[in-house]
Design goal:
By secondary structure, this protein is of the alpha/beta class. It folds into two domains: 174 residues, 3-Layer(aba) Sandwich (Rossmann fold), CATH 3.40.50; 165 residues, L-2-Hydroxyisocaproate Dehydrogenase, Chain A, domain 2 (Alpha-Beta Complex), CATH 3.90.110.10. The protein has twelve helices and eleven strands. The chain has a six-stranded parallel β-sheet, with helices on both faces. A three-stranded antiparallel β-sheet has the order 9-10-11. The relative contact order is 0.13.
């Protein structure tokens, strides 16, 4: 059962350990999940434990359950060593973060019905600030993957924290927008009868509501859409998180799909670090390609030092160009909110 789980469905593109090159087998990675006992953190940690690139996995959360999560994971017959730590910050993070290559941060409160990502800011901003301070202190060369919402604000907070510590490397700080891409591929494939695992749709901009801009005109395999189809798909991709919150009827937000997306992006980051060629993903990164926006989700090529190349979003339709123009003020304001929080004295 587990062997089939590792090769189909959830992560069909993950290589089995037998297909990794000798160099990749030698270059395993230590990963840490900060917020590992939560609704996203537990399935995310499970998926990383199943990933043959991961040789060591540290699980951190503030709840007493956390060491047990790691023990539970350690009984899975894969090569990654698992350790669990209950901690809130400071020196609690020293052991789990020291030597990390990749840190994934899903920590924070989940979204509830009626809440926007911006509503989460007051709580999650401080959590991200504390955890990124730990990264600066104990694993300054790690790739930091921020899932904690609102990503449009928490990633700028992370950048400012790292700058104050003298440890900022823009090539190694990412906002994870992969769930938007997953939704776009899934919804387009369903609408057009494509295989979702062989469908690609770039999604650019940010990671909240209308700041999420799917470029349906660049879908591959190529597809045509009526205006009604285009608008319905665009809206569903933009507000897919709301769809999950409503469906769970007060019981939570997108946890399983976000865990999948976080593990997917972490795998691609590790593939780049391992020297695999042609690793290209969309991510929320620092860039000067969009006037007025310091951070923007664009296709990036990943390499041994993190971001190797940030690509332009290419040719878009007039409709997509308007979506981008209309959302820029919101994206800029959300980033500024993060900068302001991080720079409060």
């Amino acid at each position: 059962m587990l062997s089939s789980l590792r090769t189909v469905g959830a992560r069909a593109a993950w290589p089995s350990i037998r297909t990794l090159t000798a160099l990749q087998q030698e270059r395993g990675f230590k990963c840490s999940v900060l917020g590992a006992a939560g609704g996203i953190g537990q399935p995310l940690s499970l998926l990383l434990k199943l990933n043959p690139r991961v040789t060591e996995l540290s699980c951190v959360d503030i709840v007493p359950l956390t060491p047990g999560v790691a023990v539970d994971l350690s009984h899975i017959s894969t090569g990654a060593k698992c350790t669990g730590f209950q901690g809130v910050g400071g020196e609690d993070l020293k052991d789990p973060l020291t030597g990390c290559d990749v840190v994934v941060i899903p920590a924070g409160v989940p979204r509830k019905p009626g809440m926007t990502r911006d509503d989460l800011f007051k709580i999650n901003a401080g959590i991200v600030q504390t955890l990124v301070e730990g990264c600066a202190n104990y694993c300054p060369d790690a790739c930091i993957l921020v899932i904690s919402n609102p990503v449009n604000s928490t990633v700028p907070i992370a950048a400012e924290v790292l700058k104050k510590k003298g440890k900022y490397n823009p090539r190694k700080l990412f906002g994870v927008t992969t769930l938007d891409v997953c939704r776009a591929k899934t919804f387009v494939a369903a609408a057009k009868g494509f295989d979702p695992e062989k469908t690609s749709v770039p999604v650019i901009g940010g990671h909240a509501g209308t700041t999420i801009v799917p470029l349906l005109s660049q879908s591959n395999p190529p597809a045509t859409f009526t205006d009604e189809e285009r608008d319905a798909l665009t809206h569903r991709i933009m507000f897919g998180g709301d769809e999950v919150v409503k469906a769970k009827d007060g019981g939570g937000s997108a946890t399983l799909s976000m865990a999948y997306a976080g593990a997917e992006f972490a795998d691609r980051v590790m593939a780049g670090l391992a020297g695999e060629a042609g690793v290209k993903e969309c991510a929320f990164v620092e860039t000067d390609k969009i006037p007025g926006c310091k951070f923007f989700s664009l296709p990036v090529t990943l390499g041994t030092q993190g971001v190797e190349t940030i690509h332009d979003y290419g040719t878009v339709t007039a409709h997509e160009e308007k979506l981008i123009a209309d959302m820029l003020p919101d994206l800029q304001a959300q980033a500024q909110k993060g900068f302001a929080f991080a720079n409060l004295e």
